[in-house]
Amino acid sequence: MRQVVRFAATPAGPVAYAVTGSGPPLLCVPGWVSHLGLMWDDPAHRRFFEALSQRHTVIRFDKLGCGLSDRARTDFTMESELTVLKALIGHLGLERFALFGSCDGGQVAAAYAASNPDAVTRLIVYGSCARGADLAPPDVRHSVPALVRAHWGLGSRVLADIWFPDAPAEVTGMFARMQRAAATAEMAAELLEMFYRFEVADLLPTIRVPTLVAHRRGSRAIPFELGREMAALIPGAQLAAFEGRAQPIYAVGGEAAAATVRSFLGDEPRPASDAPAPVGPGARSAGPVPVGSGARSAAPAPVGPGARAADGPLTAREFEVADLIADGLTNAEVAKRLGLSVRTVDAHVEHIRVKLGVRARTQIAVWARVGSLPAR
User: Fold this and answer.
1) The pLDDT value given to residue 294
2) Which residues of the chain, if any, have pLDDT below 70?
3) How far is residue 156's CA from residue 169's CA, in Å, rounded to a whole number?
4) CA 328, CA 324: separation in Å to the nearest integer?
5) Domain assignment of residue 176, yes or no
6) Which of the residues 132, 300, 317, 339 has an alpha carbon 20 to 30 A from that of 44?
7) Is residue 151 included in any domain, yes or no?
């Protein structure tokens, strides 16, 4: 896809944004620093958002102070972020839309959804946390911005290693260069310190929008426990756990991550046997399961001939298959685990879908974990 960058006037200066795809609007709130042009040149980043753009009008933008947006910025508060977001929404004429935020953008998206429940149809928060102060001890929160200010070249490489641990040198090098092109050393440090100051723990329980919280299990930048806590604080939220250590959602298993987001947004799913397997080393995408207030225990559904499904009994084997789907395994991985052929597992999945009256694998995962399906 080809992106066209445009600009929207805001009270604090012009903001650059890009629109791809068609369909219901999906507004993406960026994390720490971004650059619409350079990030679109990253094949993994582009593939992730192109996948979302197949069924949605995807709007991405650079926050004030970085990327292609106005580089002059003096206000580093949640209020300033929300003011710019509201101005962009007004410029685009959006009335009802899905909202997707990453890192500190997830906190901004959550804060907006909490105060504008009638505007937000669905909320997706990836790789974020309730309190920025939980990201690191006080001495680290002081030393990292200080390093960025003192030596942006070295600081950008340190942050690239945190965001992309174990990645090839060309990947971390490209990300380091993107950071330096996206923001000055002072701006990058100020935005990082803003993330450390953000706190939305008190707002999360007030959210009344269907919410998916996604997080990387092995993330060095934002530990998985912080994402799990965030999901637990949002009533009825679902949690999707992705394998891998790289922080960006597109970095490992981007196709599987995009499929999870699209399923949550209500896109028409492919049949289970045709669904693409996750890509990338160790990339498994666990189906989202409710974890917030009012959600039932996440204990596995009982296995045995006497257990009953929504519309009829599942066999013991079908319960095993459903449980492994909830663990994020593909049909091929389920087959290997149970010593079955892939074709047999395909048949089991089809029977489960028919008996439960569902179409998506994520719905099977929800049922296997909580014993019931969410209201449609």
Assistant:
1) 36
2) 268-313, 362, 366-376
3) 13
4) 7
5) no
6) 132
7) no
